[in-house]
Amino acid sequence: MNVIDLAWWELAIAAVMVVALAATSLVARLDVGKPILIAAARTVIQLSLIGLVLEALFAVGSFHWVALMAGVMLLVAGREVMARQKHRLTGGWAFGIGTVSMFVSGFTVTILTLTVVIGPDPWYTPQYAIPLLGMLLGNTMTGVALSLDRLTEAVWRQRAVIENRLMLGQCWQEAIGDFRREAMRSGMMPMINSMAAAGIVSLPGMMTGQILGGSPPSVAVKYQILVMFTITVGSGFGAIVAVSAGSRRLFDDRERLRMDRLSAGKA
Amino acid sequence: MTGTKPEALRIENLSIGALKDIQLTIEPGEIVCLSGESGSGKSRLLRAVADLEPHEGEVFLGEANRDNFTAHEWRKKVMLVPAESQWWADLVRDHFCHPVPEALAALGFEPEAMDWSVARLSSGEKQRLAAARALSCQPEALLLDEPTANLDDENTQQYEDWIRRLIEQENRPVLWVAHDEAQMKRVGDRHFRIKGDHLETAR
Q: Residue A83 sits in which domain range?
């Protein structure tokens, strides 16, 4: 099947639409013009660079380079998780918990999917490994960031409730239980929503991309289901690890709520 | 409160915030009142005894060191009732360890109060119900932080009478933070005032 390549000037037309959106928001004083432009510029630069990197990586295909790439992706995702939290755990814990939970779930699910389900030879073949890991990390990052942000935000606001429950002799897991459940729920909501809406409300991005790129829909559908399941599992376990570790860190060994372990956050 | 033997609450060399090396023993059945300017550390002292904040020093219930209990066991024995109580579930009943109809009646509530929605409680009702709620978990010592701050005169008197009666019956130690000198004279067996970094006996 033929793939219609896009010329750069054709992308420029799409870019003009983005600029128009930013200009509109500027005129209407909605204050989102600048962030839109910055994010759009980042997309262009980051994707162009990654295109070059991927082409090189696919050409080499050695395990070391794939592993290095995966490590860099993980660290960037860890930084992003930290940046998205208003009240962060101090002393490197925000970065540490985010990164470790993404590593535990994202890497495990990617490797399992590569070795057991897709089975390319060798299993780390970059054409499969890197896009799959990227998609998993990207979505796991959202789940982990949302759930950690919700957890720390709730603790910040509802400190008195948690402490009153401690005063009544509840153990720390019980005292923070409601907020853990809430955090878990908000971390999982995007995936539950997108699974529920897939194919009816929206054609998922990856499937759209594959069909536009020339794959038959039946193949695209199977990959999409695989990807959605792996993403759900990845972000779900990621959020569980993050929420468990995060809430544990908020209490010390005498089950005291340690607000001094949370940063005050931006005003 | 419980069937366990009444024990004294003993605070040794406790330091938190501005307070240094606090020594205080409260005998079973004794109400010790504590006063001090706002910000002097009254509430923090109670929080330290309940082990809610890191601090130095030891606390004993009878001969048993606090460190021999898990933190939540300790807080169940030595229960802090905060000035502003918090209610997280929908119904009053969901916050109680056991039904305590006598305590509710003594504080002027019908037994149906247990089925009230938390959303409709006034601050005075919350404060009185918080005391009953603490009692329902059968503590062995009470730490009360301005327990009548939101109550009118009638309810304050009711509350004071109830606590006095209860403490005489059950023979438990109570540390009561009050800012009202008259109240301290009414309910307290001994009074202390926070002066800088130590406690001073008040007249």
A: 62-261
pLDDT tens string A120-173:
989 999 999 998 999 899 999 999 999 999 999 999 999 999 999 999 999 999
Is residue A27 domain-shared with residue A134, that is, in the same domain?
no
- The answer on pLDDT for A202 being more than 80 is no
- The pLDDT assigned to B203 comes to 65
Q: Which amino acid is at B2?
A: T
Give how many domains chain A has, as a whole number.
2
Place of tokens 């307070």: B19
Residues in chain A, overall count = 267
Give the residues across from B16 on adjacent strands: B19
**Nearest CB partner across the interface for A256, out of B52, B80, B82:** B52
Which of A161, A255, A257 minimises the CB distance to B88? A161
Mutate to test the interface with B, among A157, A162, A166, A168 (most CBs of B within 10 A): A168
Average pLDDT for B91-106: 94
Is some CB atom of chain B closer than 8 A to the CB atom of A170?
yes
Stretch A68-91: mean pLDDT, rounded? 93
Contact A65, A57 (CB under 8 A): yes
What's the CATH number for B27-53+68-201?
A: 3.40.50.300
pLDDT > 70? residue A266: no
Residues A149, A187, single domain; the answer is yes
